[in-house]
Design a protein that fits this description.
Helix content of chain A: 25-40%
Oligomer: heterodimer
CATH superfamily of chain A: P-loop containing nucleotide triphosphate hydrolases
Distance between the termini of chain A: 36 Å
Largest sheet of chain A: 6 strands, mixed
Strand order of the largest sheet of chain A: 2-3-1-4-5-6
Number of domains of chain B: 4
Number of strands of chain A: 6
Chain lengths: 217, 816
């Protein structure tokens, strides 16, 4: 089927990036959310992978286009290319590996530097199934998230615990920002996208807003 | 000086020599002739020598140890017993001993000398019994040996003795005839004994053979053993005839056993000549020639001299006839005292030996000839039929197309046709020929296209598993038949089987020739032309032609390359045939020891089989090679016709609306690949499959590289390229699972990144290019440099990139 055929099946398209150290489980979180699969033998991601899932938020179909990036990417130019146009991000760490938690600061800084300033961010403590090996206390991470205006969830891609919730919370937060016109949807940001066709008549406001901000630049 | 007799007699030797050549009566006269002669030469020692010589020449032993039996009733001795009683003598007594013998035999000697043959037996009292008479003759002959010195007497007696014996034997035979006439076989025993005593067995056996001879007509009431209408062997009548042979022999066994017991080997030689003169000629005569009258009719009825058609030569039934023969004799022939404990086995062995010329010179030659004809006929017929059908179909295609053009078909069908017809027209217009094209030419084009399609559909019918199966089955039957002729040897080693030993290798060789014939004819007449045609069709196939003519280019591109699929089906067929042959070879030829795998590894047969396998392998390799080329052509065609410039270099205003997913081109290509990658699975060995998949994978990789280099990729479009590359990687890594080629596609994934980088980061882009390790070690820096030139903003970033790469940019250079 051609691209055009898909033009009408969603109201919003959000780009979300998954970032975090190599091996914290980003790819499995993504596959759990988009296809409800978990791959025990998953290898580290080369370059960038994509997956989408459409969910309904307040009666609107929101298509999440999620970029799963290689955790060990050494080139800033590439990471900044990943962030370009993202309206949401999930910073993922492994609750059994404190270094991956400590690196979250670095990932957050990189995100703030490269992405839109209004980008919605969620902090994910993955591998909650490894509670007996826990190295990062939940409260500490929760406080850290609050301090930096991040959503926070502990998940397990292995047994699917909270995965859906974490993505939904982030997507809802983005949606709310978009619907309150808090996110600039101009071409400059290039992120949350309004498709052509019926969407225009359904959400004329946001479309107008886009045009306005376009004019501003 | 004259020499007188007296002078001669002065010499001792001459006197004694003369004396020794005299008969006893003359010798005694000679002694009395002259006193001085007697005193000087003929008394004492010389005299003893004379008698001594006589006794020794009769076989008596001169010895001091011999007890003198002279007094113990020797007077009662007669000619029959004296040699048993007196076996030796003492020299001093020689004359006395001789006297005893002389008394017993001289009257017989005189009768024989004088030719009074009738008087001999008459003179011997109590000598009516044939064996006794034989004995008497024997003893007379022994005595006569002492007359050798009197040559004339000796020869005369010998001659008459001979004559007498002959006359006596003749009389015996006359008597024997009477015995046979009266079936009083018990009385024959004494005559047999007489013959045995005389050592004249051969004459007797000959006579008995003649006496118990039969006439064929008395035995064989049924002359025909075939149902000529059906060209079938009438097994029941064959059985009946052999049973009559067998019961005839059984009667003879009874007679011979009574007369001869185990005295004289009569039955075995009798059976030998019976089989040689009667049974084998009977079989040979019946199995001579063809079912002539039926042959042409059959051939036209069956259209071909095929495997299931009736037999051509009567001799083809030899194994059946032989089987019945052996079966009948094994179950019905009675044991014979005269024939010995292995009688039945010897008889059967003998049949085998006697049939050998028929087997070797007739049966094996004919069976090979027929099989060769059948193979040729079947395969030629198949080829003709296939060609005819193809022609018919081609004709139908033409008719259908013409009718459609003539508007006789339903409107919508016509419209469908016309729409594709229009496409041809358009295509031709773009090629600059179409404007003047007439409808006839278009029809021709459509016809060729449909014909090609149909040829492809029927590619696998070029080689028929069914036909090859039948051919193998036929050869199996023939080999089984041949083996029937050798399976009879159950005799212990001591049996006279020397002649039979020669037949086993001969039969083995025949089996091998049949197998070789099978493989050769099958490969030359069927497999080779089939595969050659298939390779030819494959070679002439042009995917673009098909795509051009079919409605919906997308559907066509996604559909598997037809000839490759058909060819692979053909490979599958070839593999099945090869396996059938291997199983046949293993289960029949090796298992039955027709071929010894270890000993005969240089055997021509094994070589033939290997050549056959090699031929198939070569065709598979050639076909796959062509197939891969065609597949690559199609992939190239899809890239060229479906990878749109906007795919990787989109208009910035539309990019937001595009979902990130593989391009239409990429999905078509992956579908095309997945339709072909797994075709070989199950059709051939894993090694070939791996080579095929890796080859396709590597060449596909090269096509992707070329495709990237053909397109211009913008930063916005990079993500779509990455998506395509991810899609290819996913297919190779997760579906195909050919580990060796996965790194190539992982390398491509990282290549996608260099297009994603913003032109603001051009310096870092330069660093990335220098970092060869970044691209999984698949590409050299030069190659990456070639890729990066495909960036839409290359002119803007070039300077920075080159400066990082080379320390300075080309544009920095100033010609001094």
């Amino acid at each position: 089927m051609s691209n055009e055929d898909y033009g009408y099946d969603y109201d919003y398209l959000f780009k979300i990036v998954l970032i975090g150290d190599s091996g914290v489980g980003k790819s499995n979180l993504l596959s759990r959310f988009t296809t409800d699969e978990f791959n025990v033998n998953s290898k580290s991601t080369i370059g960038v992978e994509f997956a989408t899932r459409t969910i309904e938020v307040e009666g609107k179909k929101v298509k999440a286009q999620i970029w799963d990036t290689a955790g060990q990417e050494r080139y800033r130019a590439i990471t900044s290319a990943y962030y370009r146009g993202a309206v949401g991000a999930l910073i993922v760490y492994d609750i059994s590996k404190s270094s991956s938690y400590e690196n979250c600061n670095h990932w957050l800084a990189e995100l703030r530097e490269n992405a839109d300033e209004n980008v919605a961010v969620g902090l994910i403590g993955n591998k909650s199934d490894l509670a007996h090996l826990r190295a990062v206390p939940t409260d500490e991470a929760k406080n850290y998230a609050q301090e930096n205006q991040m959503l926070f969830t502990e998940t397990s891609a292995l047994n699917a615990e909270n995965v859906d919730l974490a993505f939904r919370e982030l997507i809802t937060a983005i949606y709310q920002m978009v619907s309150k016109n808090q996110v600039d949807l101009s071409e400059k940001s290039g992120g949350g996208t309004m498709p052509r066709g019926p969407t225009i008549s359904l959400t004329p406001a946001s479309n107008e807003k886009t045009k306005k901000s376009n004019n501003c630049c | 000086m004259t020499i007188t007799i007296d002078d001669l007699f002065q010499v001792t030797n001459i006197v004694t020599l003369v004396a020794r050549s005299l008969t006893p009566r003359d010798y005694l006269c000679f002694q009395r002739l002259n006193k001085s002669l007697y005193d000087d030469y003929l008394q004492g020692y010389s005299d003893l020598e004379y008698w001594d010589m006589k006794l020794v020449s009769m076989g008596l032993v001169e010895s001091d140890a011999v007890v003198d039996e002279m007094d113990s009733g020797v007077e009662e001795c007669d000619a029959l017993t004296i040699f048993d009683r007196i076996k030796g003598f003492q020299k001093f007594n020689a004359k006395e001993v001789y006297k005893k013998f002389h008394r017993c035999f001289w009257s017989f000697i005189m009768k024989l000398y004088e030719g009074d043959l009738d008087g001999v037996f008459a003179a011997a009292a109590g000598c009516e019994d044939p064996v006794t008479r034989v004995e008497l003759l024997r003893q007379i002959r022994r005595f006569n040996r002492c007359n050798r010195c009197s040559y004339e007497l000796y020869v005369q007696v010998e001659e008459h003795l001979e004559e007498l014996q002959e006359r006596f034997l003749e009389e015996l035979l006359v008597e024997l005839g009477g015995i046979f006439d009266e079936r009083d076989y018990k009385s024959g025993v004494k005559i047999v004994d007489a013959y045995v005593a005389l050592g004249e067995q051969a004459t007797l056996v000959e006579y008995v053979k003649k006496k118990i001879e039969y006439t064929e007509s008395s035995l064989v009431r049924y002359t025909g053993i075939f149902d000529l209408d059906e060209c079938q062997l009438d097994q029941e009548s064959v059985r009946t005839i052999f049973k009559s042979f067998c019961s005839f022999l059984n009667e003879k066994i009874e007679v011979v056993d009574v007369m001869f017991a185990d005295n004289l080997s009569v039955m075995v030689p009798y059976c030998e000549s019976f089989f040689e003169e009667v049974v084998v000629p009977f079989i040979a005569e019946r199995l001579e020639g063809e079912f002539v009258s039926n042959f042409p009719q059959m051939r036209s009825e069956y259209g071909t001299w095929n495997f299931s058609a009736p037999r051509k030569y009567t001799v083809e039934y030899l194994p059946d006839v032989y089987g019945i023969l052996v079966d009948v004799f094994r179950s019905e022939l009675r044991d014979s005292i005269n024939g010995g404990p292995n009688f039945v086995d010897i008889v059967i062995e003998n049949i085998h030996v006697l049939l050998q010329p028929l087997i070797v010179d007739e049966y094996l030659l004919k069976i090979e000839e027929v099989f060769k004809t059948q193979l040729a006929d079947e395969f030629t017929h198949y080829n003709e039929e296939t060609a005819k059908k193809q022609e018919e179909r081609n004709g139908q295609i033409y008719e259908t197309l013409r009718n459609k053009i003539g508007g006789t078909e339903l409107m919508n069908e016509k419209n469908n046709f016309l729409s594709s017809f229009t496409r041809i027209l358009q295509k031709k217009n773009t090629n600059g020929i179409g404007s003047s094209a007439t409808a006839e030419e278009e029809l021709k084009l459509m016809y060729d296209f449909n014909k090609l399609n149909d040829n492809l559909k029927n590619l696998q019918s070029l080689v028929s598993v069914d036909l090859c199966y039948k051919a193998i089955q036929r050869s199996e039957t023939i080999i089984a038949d041949i083996c029937k002729l050798s399976a009879m040897r159950r005799l212990p080693a001591k049996a006279p089987a020397a002649k039979v030993e020669d037949l086993a290798p001969c039969l083995k060789a025949a089996c091998q020739r049949v197998f070789k014939l099978l493989i050769q004819e099958m490969s030359v007449r069927h497999i080779k032309p089939g595969f050659e045609k298939a390779v030819h069709v494959l070679q002439n196939y042009n995917p673009q032609d098909i795509n051009r003519l079919t409605s919906g280019a997308a559907a066509a591109a996604a559909a598997p390359t037809d000839p490759l699929i058909k060819f692979i089906e053909l490979i599958n067929i070839g593999d099945i045939i090869l396996q059938m042959i291997s199983i046949f070879f293993r289960d029949k030829l090796i298992a039955k020891k027709i071929v010894d795998k270890n000993k005969d590894f240089l055997n021509e047969l094994i070589q033939t089989k290997k050549n056959f396998e090699m031929m198939l392998d070569d065709f598979v390799a050639e076909g796959l090679n062509i197939g891969i080329n065609k597949l690559m052509d199609e992939i190239l065609f899809v890239f060229n016709s479906n990878q749109l410039p906007e795919d990787f270099n989109p208009d910035p205003s539309t990019v937001k609306n595009r979902e990130i997913k593989p391009s239409k081109c990429a999905t078509m290509i992956v579908e095309l690949l997945s339709n072909h990658f797994f075709l070989l699975t199950g059709a051939t060995d894993k090694g070939t499959i791996d080579v095929f998949q890796q080859e396709v994978g590597e060449r596909f990789f090269n096509e992707v590289v070329k495709n990237i280099k053909k397109n211009i990729i913008s930063t916005d479009g990079a993500i779509f390229l990455i998506c395509d590359l991810n899609y290819y990687y996913d297919f190779i890594a997760n579906k195909l699972k050919q580990k060796q080629i996965i790194p190539l596609f992982a390398g491509l994934k990282t290549v996608g990144q260099i297009f994603l980088v913003s032109n603001k980061d051009s310096k870092e882009l330069g660093k990335m290019i220098c970092d060869v390790g970044k691209f999984q070690g698949i590409f050299t820096q030069e190659e990456i440099y070639e890729f990066v030139q495909r960036r839409a903003d290359w002119s803007r970033v070039r300077k920075d990139v080159e400066r990082v790469m080379y320390g300075l940019a080309v544009s920095d250079c100033i010609i001094m």
